[in-house]
Each structure stands twice: as C-alpha cells, then as structure tokens.
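Per-residue structure
===
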Amino acid sequence: MTQVISEHTYPKRRKTIFFSTILICIISVLVFAFINYAKKQPTKFLLPLETELQINYDPIKIEIAKKKSKAEKMKIQENNLEAEINLKAAIELKKAAKYDKAYKVFQHSLSLTPNNPKILTEFGLFLEERDIITADQLYYKAITHDPNYERAIIRRQKTAAVVNSIDEERLKRLDEKRDLLSEVDVRSSAMKRATKEAYILHIYHSVGIEGNSMTLAETRSVLETHMAVSGRSVEEHNEILGLDSAMKYVNASLVKSDVITLNDILEIHKRILGHVDPIEGGTFRKTQVYVGNHIPPKASDLSILMDDFEKWLNSDYTQQLHPVKKAAIAHYKLVHIHPFSDGNGRTSRLLMNTILMKYGFPPVVIQKQQRLQYYNYLQMANEGDIRPFIRFIAECTEKTLDLYLWATSEHSPYTVPLLAEKETIDGHSTIILEDDSSGSGSEAIRL
C-alpha cells in the first residue's frame, strides 16, 4: 500500500531532526565537560609532600587510616593464629617453671596482637607476682578493648587497690624528700650550684627531646656566654635561648602566683619560640596537625578547649590533687590539645615544672634518653590509661630530688640520678663527675 505524504509531513520531520541535533550537541558538550573535569580530579586521596609535613612533637611517621587490602587482612589472620600458638606455648613454659623463656614468648605473642584481651590478661597473670603494676596495666588495657572480658575484670579487682596503695606510697615519699630539701638553706653555695646545674640540665634535655643535637657542654656554653658554638645551626642556638627566656619568665612571674592563666601559657610559648619563630610564638595554630597516631583537635576548637583547660587548671577539684598528679595531668592535657604549631612539648614540660615549683618541688628533668619511653606513656594516656604517665613523672621527680639531696648533703644516703648524655649498652645512662678546678668543692655537680 502506497503511503500518502501530506504537505505537513516534511516540516514535522525537519522539526524532529532539529531538536534531536540540539539534544545530541548538549549531551556531547556535557560529556566532554565531565571528562575534562574528571581528568583534573585525583583518582585517590593523595598525601602531601614530605616537605609540607611538619611534625614538631613526635618523629613517628603519620599513619593515615585506610581500608585494609586482602594481603593485609591475611597478615592479620596469620598474626592472630601465630599469637594463639605462642600464647599456648608461653603458658606451658610457665607451668614448667621456665620463666625467662615464657616471658619472651609472652612478649612475642603480644607484639603480634597488642590489643588481644586474652593475651593481655594471661601475660598479666604471669607478671602479677613479679610486677603487679605492669600486670594491672595489662588488665586495664584488656578491659578497655573488651569491657565484658570477665577474666580481666576479676584480676583487676584484685590488683587495683594494691597498685593504688603503691602509687600513694611513692607520692608520700616524694613529699618527704621535698620537705627534707626545703630545710636546706637556699643561700648556701651547694644549693646555688645544684639549682644552676638542674636549670642547665632541664634546658639540655628538654630541647634534646625535640631533636636538638647540642651536647651538654655546648648547651652550658651557650647559656653562660651567649656565644655561638661552631658547627651548630642557628635554630639550635635559638631553641636553647628561647627556653632559657621562658624559664626566667616563669621564675620571675609565675612561681609565686596563685593561679596560672591562659595568658601565662601563651607568654611561656611566646618566649620559647621567640628566637625561632616570633610570628607563631604566643598564638594558636591555624591549621590541622598530626602527631604520630594522634590527631589533635581542629584549630577552630582551640579557643574553647584552652578556656576549659584554664578552668580545670584552677578549679577546686584540681587544687586538691597531689602536685605531681596535677602537674603530670596538666602536661598531658596540654600536649593532647596541641594548641601550637611548634613548641608544644617544651611548653607542656615547662608548665608541668611551673606547677611543681609552686608546691616546693624542683623543676623535673626528663632525660632525652627516655624520649621513646616518654612518648609511649603519652600514647598509653591517649588510649585511656594516664596512670603510667603519672608514675613516669613521679619517677623523674624522685630522681631530680635525689640529685638535689645528693648535691646539698655531705653524707647523702641518696643514689645519684643518672643524667649523662649518652646511653649505655644496657639501656641506662651514666653520670660523669668532673673536679671543679675553681675550688668550689666536691659538692659542685659537673655532668
């Protein structure tokens, strides 16, 4: 049958073709634009260049959370299986009274799965009679990762009171040593020399923790002469001079004041960075920073957080804490907030010492040889247990008190703390005593 074409057929077809062409052009333009846009976008999240990353507190590499690959999942399963096998072996060695081998196997098992509640608890049971404090920490960590793990809960109910008693006894001992030191005449030559040496040691170790390579002798030279040391960077000199300036400010303005304000903390930081970065000194950071596995609060939250920190620092509750507890917790809180782009560690340690000095304790020296241990305890606090960090600060406080008591007593019963520059093979530092050629006597501490 022949199709009849009317006079209106061609215009309709032309209209359809016209609109189809327009639609195809629009779609082509959109597709072309989308392809260009897609080409400009990264195919995955890209990390910043190494030169753009500045980690001023912890040298541990940044770890960005990401989905685990199949190979990584298989590795975790292998670790879990190996850890279980090692755990059984460790328990058998324990039953056979082969304690040294059992200890090593327990350690290896825990290194494979650090958060396994079963392994944490069994290792704690093994250590309980020998080191109840570490055992209690392991039980605490097990409960943190599994609040319903009954075996850990039962064991911790038995260790918590004992450990608390040990901690309180140590704090009582620190008070006794502080009171004994307070009987020494501050105008005596021995006390003046001890104070000077402790002052230099604090600066040397505090900047050393942050990576400053100056030796103790070089640090002393910079502080006493303000002259440059050959072969050392300008920044390293300025770090020492900045901390010196901040400590002088604390001694002159804060030790005898009733409260420590947010402005005081900013003034401390301003002086610490005054010679290194005067623009950033005394001001909150404006960007996000990353500190090892810890991601500090956003820059926009710092004002509120620091106001809350100031209120806590001067609250009635905080005033009732033992000075060492208060100082350690204040240190942790400030470094956890990480309010500055640089100098957080030095500011936190100096704030801690400001609190201690207000209560009659000498400024505490945290040795740079203890750097990794120091960071580990801060990480444990991040995971929920701040007690190991408080114990660490208490230990450092006692060593510093012993140093003062040894230096100011003719026949001191206290052991000289180990505060040398280099670490020995067994992991402990050694002390080096030099004769004072100026004739000031054997009480002078030359480390």
